[in-house]
Amino acid sequence: MRLNLSLFQKALILIAVPLAFQLVFVFILVSLRQQVEQEEMHQVHAREIYRHLDRMLRNVMDRSMESIMSSVSRQVGYNDPEAQSRLDMLAKSTQEEAAAIKQFIADSNNEEEKKQFAECDDLQQQLFMSWNVSKKLLDEGDRLNALRLFRNTQAVAQKLLKQCDLMSAAERGVEATQLEAEKRHRDQIELLIKSGVVLNIVLAVALATFFNVGIARRLNVLIDNIVRLGANQPLNPTLVGDDEIAKVDQTFHHMAEALALATRQERAIIDKAMDVICSLNPAGKFTRVSPAATEAWGYNPDHLLGKSYLDLIAGAEKEKTASAMKDIKAGEREEPIETQVIHEDGRMIDTMWSARWSHEDETFFCVAHDITARKQAEKILQEAEARVRLIVESLPIGLVIIDSQGIIEFTNPSLRKMFGYST
Fold it and tell me: Mean pLDDT across the stretch 255-281?
């Protein structure tokens, strides 16, 4: 199925298709980039959580060691005045880390993560409560219950460490998974960019080739028609379509038909004309002769082609005729040229040539009219006039011709002699 598209529509497709492809390409690229950013955010999220968990566990371990050292010191009778300050600082730091973790997971959709941290936070609070109770019992001197509670505190601390390790391992797994996904998506982006560039180039070249081949083929048909018209050969069939090239070709066919009609009409007029119509090149040689040359001059028009027109002019008339043609070419003469043409049978024919020089075509366009009959009539008239004049002048009586105003127009010799006038 052939698409009847204009050149503008084809140009629009050449622009729109690659542009649409690029828009789709950019949309996919942006989507992958958003996924990469989300994966980076998940990595940061997981990294921050296990970093705060690590600090919280380190604080718990430090506080446990500090509690053990403080208890041992008291048992041996040494009371460290800064021990409580260090314990309070560690407790505060632990709570700050827990609060930071809560803030990170507050907007998270990972319910398992929230559940794991809730257990860690609950164990951490139990641990701090046990430490506070143990300290109070020690302060009251109840070492036995304090020791029993301290052992229970160590069990809670172990559970807390285990639970935090599980949560840290889960966050590290998330980070590793997201890191792998990020790498995979980055590789996809790189592959997409390379593939997109290659496909875009291939698509642009394919579209340009497809449309250009069609346009070039149609232009070649149009150019071939111009050559065929100049060579007077049949034109190619009219191009099908509504594009500009097809319209130009259709117009060209209409023009060729009109030109052929005008040529036929011109040829019919020339062929039926009684006068010889011809064209001469700058050297004066015939390039075209109408069929009337056969009837008027006795020559076959084809035999005259390439011959000089001066070959047909009577010897005494050649120089005068050639000079007149030069004046016409120079634009110094417009009136027709009267000259004699030698008929094919040798007799002389009086002709009157109307010639025009075309600077654009570098050609003389001539019409040779046979005036032999007119010349003969003029000769007969002149002879008759001479005989009448001779008779009038020989009359023995006086003869005078007067116009309506009484003015004498003519007198014969007898009248002039009668009245004594000389002329």
Answer: 75
